[in-house]
Amino acid sequence: MGRFSKMHGLGNDFVVIDARAQAIDMTEARARAIADRHAGIGCDQLILIGNAADADVSMQIFNADGSEVEACGNATRCVPLFVGRDVLIRTKAGLLDAKSVDGGASVDMGAPRFDWDAIPLAYPMDTLTMGASWEELPAPAAVNVGNPHVIFFVDDLDGVNFDRLGPLIEHDPLFPARVNVNFAQVVGDDHLRLVVWERGAGLTRACGTGACATAVAAIRRKLMTGPVTVSLPGGDLVIDWAPGGTIRMTGPATHVFDGEADWDRF
Ligand SMILES: N[C@@H](CCC[C@H](N)C(=O)O)C(=O)O
Questions:
Q1: 108: Cα separation from own chain's centroid
Q2: Which residues make Cβ contacts (< 8 Å) with residue 84, sequence separation at least 6?
Q3: How far apart are alpha carbons 17 and 6 in whole angstroms?
Q4: Are residue 8 and residue 89 in the same domain, yes or no?
Q5: Residue 263 located in a structural domain
Q6: Last residue within a domain, chosen from 70, 89, 108
Q7: Does some domain include residue 258?
Q8: Nearest residue (CA) to ligand 1, atom 3
Q9: Is 137 helix (H, G, I), strand (E, B) or coil?
Q10: At residue 138, does pLDDT exceed 90?
Q11: Got the DSSP string for 203-216?
């Protein structure tokens, strides 16, 4: 039997496995089976915590569709709670410094990237105001915060058909690595509402990297100066960034329960 913890950040939920304590060969098919909400344990992302040569721990992230990805903001805030102390985390997106705060964590998420080939896009394009649009949606921005994001600023978030537009844009050939799709509405000074269609997971209650990418895009477009409060369906995150600097994300992290599973079943 293997052990796991169920955790979440603003309702974006994770199965977290301590791979330092148990050997587990994670494949795309196995990650998808564990994440399955009907036949598996169920989660938006599967997180493997391991040993790292240059950090306190390593973190591997698998989307619910089994794809391994570079970054997950909400899961990163869960790591200090899981490990029991502040941690330097080795991820595919780089080294992330995560510190506990009351009820959650504050993480330096690194510097955003804006070059078209760093997003990545299929061909050169201005990433602040992209020369592309989908139906009634205005020209978006694109930001890579370890993983790829496209951001639409809309007047009425409640009028957007997320279930139709999310997968359409996620799989558009303009994004060769697929993309996380962010729909944002400015609702006040330094305050955004945000809904995210996540690559490989669909609509989630919250997306930490989506909040980072959207706040950065809003500051680049001079819509606000920050720190930015991002209100997601699952609750609020505070994102701080100044041009040329790294992104700080602060928000809740929750441990739900510990469980046991037979990994050979999956
Ligand atoms: N929920 C996450 C992002 C998880 C990865 C993403 N779906 C991707 O494919 O890049 C977050 O909180 O950032």
A1: 14
A2: none
A3: 9
A4: yes
A5: no
A6: 108
A7: no
A8: 72
A9: coil
A10: no
A11: E-S--HHHHHHHHH
The answer as to whether 32 is a domain residue is yes
Q: Is 72 touching ligand 1 by the criterion CB < 6 Å?
A: yes
Per the CB < 8 A criterion, the answer to whether 78 and 66 are in contact is no
Of the residues 43, 72, 78, 212, only one is catalytic, namely 72
- Render pLDDT for 58-83 as a digit per residue (tens, 0 to 9): 999 999 999 999 999 999 999 999 99
Beta strands 228-232 and 141-144 are unpaired
Whether residue 134 sits in one domain with residue 73: no
pLDDT band, very low/low/confident/very high, at 7 (cuts 50, 70, 90): very high
Q: Is 11 annotated as a binding residue?
A: no
Q: What is the ipTM of this complex?
A: 0.99
List the domain range (segments joined by +) for residue 98.
Answer: 2-108
Q: Is 147 in the pocket of ligand 1 (CB under 6 A)?
A: yes
Separation of CA 72 and ligand 1 centre (Å): 4
